[in-house]
């Protein structure tokens, strides 16, 4: 009777679809589940209290409530972007973190280097006001959250509590975003396998 009860638990958790919530930097407004399929989770105004954010070596900390998901981060240099086209250049979205796929629910951190994106997007510099938007898909459609930032070159690392709760983040993933994402990914998969094994062991 052990395995039937485990399958029931899996089905129940899959039925709870609360999408994802950005933890750091702080999003434009409190998470509204029903609005997350909309631009910036339904928030169309930039906040006045922007997060001072590292120009290089930033991180994003987010909570995924889907077991398998994709994400991408885009940037706007408008002061108050209120629609998707303001995250566009003539060649499409201004991407800061390229599209990636990940498995695992819970708090997940990944690197974001806005200075590197400045090569393709003019206006990304020390002191600039920018907005980042996380594009997420956990299998129930595209979801969006935004954070309004002021970039700082003096701030060489995020605050210590920014990665609070993330077990996967590494201080040495800045040598190429792709490599970092892959490294981070294999860790969370390993953590998932381990926790599944522990669940099975404790059930026996
Ligand atoms: Cu969802």
TrEMBL record:
<keyword id="KW-1003">Cell membrane</keyword>
<dbReference type="InterPro" id="IPR046936">
    <property type="entry name" value="BIM1-like"/>
</dbReference>
<keyword id="KW-0325">Glycoprotein</keyword>
<dbReference type="Pfam" id="PF20238">
    <property type="entry name" value="BIM1-like_dom"/>
</dbReference>
<keyword id="KW-0472">Membrane</keyword>
<dbReference type="GO" id="GO:0098552">
    <property type="term" value="C:side of membrane"/>
</dbReference>
<keyword id="KW-0336">GPI-anchor</keyword>
<protein>
    <recommendedName>
        <fullName>Copper acquisition factor BIM1-like domain-containing protein</fullName>
    </recommendedName>
</protein>
<dbReference type="InterPro" id="IPR046530">
    <property type="entry name" value="BIM1-like_dom"/>
</dbReference>
<feature type="signal peptide">
    <location>
        <begin position="1"/>
        <end position="18"/>
    </location>
</feature>
<keyword id="KW-0732">Signal</keyword>
<feature type="domain" description="Copper acquisition factor BIM1-like">
    <location>
        <begin position="17"/>
        <end position="170"/>
    </location>
</feature>
<keyword id="KW-0449">Lipoprotein</keyword>
<dbReference type="GO" id="GO:0005886">
    <property type="term" value="C:plasma membrane"/>
</dbReference>
């Amino acid at each position: 009777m052990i395995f039937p009860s485990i399958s029931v638990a899996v089905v129940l958790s899959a039925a709870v679809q609360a999408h994802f919530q950005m933890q750091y930097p702080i999003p434009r407004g409190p998470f509204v589940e029903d609005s997350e399929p909309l631009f910036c989770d339904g928030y169309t105004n930039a906040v006045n209290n922007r997060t001072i954010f590292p120009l290089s070596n930033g991180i994003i900390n987010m909570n995924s409530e889907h077991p398998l998901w994709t994400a991408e981060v885009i940037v706007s240099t408008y002061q108050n972007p209120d629609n998707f086209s303001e995250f566009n250049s003539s060649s499409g979205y201004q991407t800061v973190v390229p599209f990636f796929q990940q498995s695992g629910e819970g708090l997940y951190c990944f690197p974001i280097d806005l200075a590197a994106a400045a090569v393709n997007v003019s206006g990304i510099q020390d002191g600039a006001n920018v907005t980042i938007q996380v594009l997420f898909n956990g299998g129930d459609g595209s979801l969006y959250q935004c954070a309004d930032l002021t970039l700082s070159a003096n701030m060489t690392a995020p605050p210590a509590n920014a990665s609070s709760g993330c077990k996967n983040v590494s201080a040495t993933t800045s040598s190429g975003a792709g490599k970092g994402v892959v490294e981070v990914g294999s860790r969370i998969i390993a953590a998932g396998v381990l926790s599944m094994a522990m669940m099975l062991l404790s059930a026996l």
